[in-house]
User: Which sequence fits this backbone?
């Protein structure tokens, strides 16, 4: 072989050797990088999941019930780890819709509601507020945080607060049908004459969620202000009932809340056709619905207190409360 041929052969050999060296270096680099990423992921998991070991022998609260007879959890302060539960739900990129109604003089409560919600309500999660009002021009501007939005929807004024209360179920039913499909995961329906004072977070999420009324959480069922007239679709006989639920706050998945609002709207129409109005309008029908369709999660009165109530020993924190007001002054009728 000529000298030039030998030189060409050596050159080709070095090129091939250099190529395989580069490939081998790349493989080693990728392998080390994968190991490093795995180590970082493992480290991150351990950091995120550091919390006290749960106990099967000792409950977190001994002074209250934390589960119903149908195995639904009742959420109180001390029954959940907020850091742990937030880390679980943040993986799911959830959207929580929240509806409120502000008609007539009730627009005065919007600012405090929204500003306090931005401080305490599903902080760090995507929230879309839908505010129904007959006075869009009276709704104040409130700075929304990241991933937080407000939509104002104009509706007709009504002369009786009872009619306002009873019309909400239909409005919520249609909102879910026409606007929210595939746009949200959960929905909560709250009263506007309220204010947040503490955390209301993902511990409250569930398929169907009821909130225990602050006036009757420690009362026997014969004192519950259910509708007692058999002529009403909201009728609950004496001796029946689980808890008394507040109409000022309820929620759940879109599908379950849609079924709730649809059923209550239909029952309200039947009552109207029979010239009967349940004692507490939609709240009476809500309680009948929850009696027949048990909530999958209950929120303690921490999630629906009243500013005029003295704080009970069981209430370690007031998260959400109905603010003090002169009903005769703000309502359109007695």
Assistant:
């Amino acid at each position: 072989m000529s000298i030039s041929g030998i030189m060409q052969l050596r050159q080709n050999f070095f090129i091939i050797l250099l190529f395989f060296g580069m490939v081998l270096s790349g493989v080693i680099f990728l392998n080390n990088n994968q190991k490093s990423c795995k180590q970082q992921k493992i480290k991150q998991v351990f950091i995120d999941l550091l919390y006290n070991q749960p106990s099967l022998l000792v409950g977190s609260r001994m002074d209250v019930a934390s589960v119903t007879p149908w195995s639904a959890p009742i959420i109180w302060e001390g029954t959940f780890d907020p850091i742990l539960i937030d880390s679980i739900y943040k993986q799911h990129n959830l959207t929580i819709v929240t509806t409120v109604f502000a008609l007539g003089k009730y627009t005065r409560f919007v600012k405090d509601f929204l500003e306090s919600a931005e401080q305490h309500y599903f902080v760090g999660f995507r929230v879309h507020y839908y505010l129904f009002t007959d006075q869009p021009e009276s709704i104040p501007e409130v700075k929304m945080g990241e991933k937080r939005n407000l939509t104002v929807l104009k509706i007709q004024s009504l002369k009786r607060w009872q009619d306002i209360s009873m019309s909400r179920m239909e409005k919520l039913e249609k909102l879910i049908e026409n606007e929210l499909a595939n746009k949200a995961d959960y929905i909560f329906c709250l009263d506007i004459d309220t204010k947040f004072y503490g955390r209301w977070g993902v511990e409250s999420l569930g398929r169907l969620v009821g909130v225990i009324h602050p006036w009757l959480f420690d009362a026997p069922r014969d004192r519950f202000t259910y509708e007692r007239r058999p002529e009403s679709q909201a009728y609950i006989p004496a001796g029946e009932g689980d808890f008394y639920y507040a109409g000022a706050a309820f929620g759940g998945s879109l599908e379950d809340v849609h079924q709730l609002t649809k059923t209550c709207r239909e029952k309200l129409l039947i009552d109207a056709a029979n010239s009967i109005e349940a004692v507490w309008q939609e709240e009476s029908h809500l309680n009948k619905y929850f009696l027949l369709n048990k909530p999958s999660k209950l929120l303690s009165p921490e999630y629906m207190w009243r500013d005029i109530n003295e704080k009970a020993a069981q209430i370690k924190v007031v998260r959400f409360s109905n603010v003090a007001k002169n009903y005769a002054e703000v309502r359109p009728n007695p």
